[in-house]
Design goal:
The protein is of the alpha+beta class. The chain has helices at residues 23-32, 91-98, and strands at residues 9-13, 42-47, 53-60, 63-70, 86-90. β1 (9-13), α1 and β2 (42-47) form a beta-alpha-beta unit.
């Protein structure tokens, strides 16, 4: 997996997980904690407590795939809290998250300009 397409479904686990967990343990988390089917065509994204590592789990034809990325000097910007334990996004948003952007901020506030001079 180089980068997911824009249309792929992505489920981000808000709670940090143990970085030593492998594909089978993460698949159990997907099914038991997140209530999702690991065999669906989707990506399941996890991070560690320090938020310097991301693991992406997905099913491809005949087996589980586990993709990892570790940042050397920064942290991934992760939601602190969310309704439920999962944040749903698409592949385009995941790519921005992996590039280090804050995809959870509210963006710019609207300016209230009343006059020019």
């Amino acid at each position: 997996m180089m980068r997911p397409g824009a249309e792929v479904a992505v489920y981000l686990c808000v709670a940090p997980v143990d970085g030593r967990k492998q594909a089978a343990s993460l698949a159990l988390l997907v099914e038991q904690s997140l209530g999702r089917n690991v065999f669906e065509p989707a990506l399941y994204v996890f991070t560690t407590r320090r938020r310097d590592r991301v693991r992406i789990l997905y099913w491809e034809r005949n087996g589980l795939c586990l993709w990892s990325k570790r940042l050397e000097q920064q942290q991934f910007i992760w939601p602190r809290s969310a309704p439920g334990e999962t944040v749903t996004m698409n592949g385009r948003t995941l790519n921005a998250l992996l590039d280090g952007f804050d995809v959870f901020s509210q963006g710019h506030r609207e300016l209230e300009i009343r006059r020019v001079g």
